[in-house]
Amino acid sequence: MLTFSSFKARVLGLALLVTAATSATTAMAQNITLRVGDQRGNARAVMEAAGVLQNLPYTVEWSEFPNAAPLLEALRADAIDAGSVGDAPLTFAAAAGLQAKAIFATSYEGNAIIVTKASPYKTIADLKGKRIAVVKGSSGHNLLLQVLAKAGLAPDAVTPAFLAPSEATLALTQGSVDAVVTWEPYVSFATLKSGARILVDGKSYPAVSYFVASDKAIKSKKDALKDFVARNARARSWGQTNAEPYSKLIAKLVGIPEDVALAKQGREGHAPLKIDEHILHLQQATIDLYATSGLIPKRLEASQLIDASFNP
Question: What pTM value is reported for the model?
Answer without folding.
Answer: 0.86
